[in-house]
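Our preliminary data section would be incomplete without showing what the modeling component actually yields. Below, a chain of 151 amino acids is followed by its predicted structure, encoded as tokens that our downstream tools consume directly.
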Amino acid sequence: MSKTDNPLARLQFTNRVRKRAQYEAFEYTLTPEGVQVRNGSHANPEDHEYLVTVQDGLPTHCTCPADARFEGACKHRVAVAIRTPILDAATTSIAADGGTTGADKRSIEDRISTGHDSPVASETDTDECEECFEDFPCWECVRTGKKPIPE
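Predicted structure:
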């Protein structure tokens, strides 16, 4: 995936939104309509659940008040965009025979468990990751400790 294909390059958001999307305790549930995002950082997480709609691999809408009120993507949309396995699972269509459509034949569960777009990271992988921006690491690099979350 090139940087122009990366959903983060196609979304506009502030540094504050980016940081909150990275550190808040979001929980994700895939639904036929999109991704249900629950913010576990709140005292009453059930009061902070919103539906993020994904179209063509891009989180386009969220039912939260901030997405309607402010310019740019809300933290829920950015949170879905930075978690590639969640975004992939939300964009994978189920075929009539129960399989998935598209070129990637790995199961949704396999992609979520590996935590990355690539089939399996090889031992020859360099520190350069096509998913990361210069100042914004992908979730897999953060999760595996390859790159820190910027301050």
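The helical segments are 7-10, 15-23, 65-69, 75-82, 84-91, 108-114, 139-143. Residues 7-143 form one domain. Preliminary results of this kind motivate Aim 1 of the renewal.
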